[in-house]
Amino acid sequence: MGHENKTGELIGLLENEKWQTRYKALSSLIKQDDNSALEIVKKMLNEDENAHVREIAVEYLKFNNSFPLKPINPENVNLYHFPIKNSHTKLGIINATSDPTLSENEAIENIKYKLKQEAAQLGANAVININCRKKFLLLKQFKAKGYAVLINDAPEKIHVEKSNKVILLGILYIIWGLSYFLFNGTFNLFSIFILGGGLIIFTAGIFKIKQYQKDKLYLTIMASIIIVMLILTYIQMSPYIDWWL
Prior knowledge:
By secondary structure, this protein is of the alpha+beta class.
């Protein structure tokens, strides 16, 4: 009777307004090997506002062999190279490597297939923050890493979590670097590196927002920025030009 009373008390706490209390109550129910709150926890997985609570809800359901709530078809798993604002529950990090015998285009499709397969096995309907690149410089093999997630609301209505802060930081560094030139008519080493760093940060933010995944183009832009920085640095340090301060 005491055990039943404690279990009933814990189930009552699942509706507490503090997410920490709901989280601890679910953790305790798992430790007690309880399965009497299945329907309540299923509802929490879909409706609870706190991601930590939803994650422990997944653990409770897994412990009671009730997750995923319904089979996930790999073909219905969506892949995103960016973070999302949609309410979602992280189910784990997944890694995939393409078959080394495939061509570059085939390898990309192969790795997408593998990501979807692994995500579906975890009960996820999407993979976010995917980082995909060549495994070795001279080979066509690709490797990818991302977060398998269960999107709670309509997965077809995705809201992108843009990197506005990153882009703003890049712009501020660019303005900072250019301001020295505007006030002094030239650059010095410090302003060159501030300007170059700002351009790199700004470019990285744009690539993330636009979902650009062309590594060669990305590396070319970064290399160009670095080369320009080195040229400006050389000009400033040259003993034949009196720009150096």
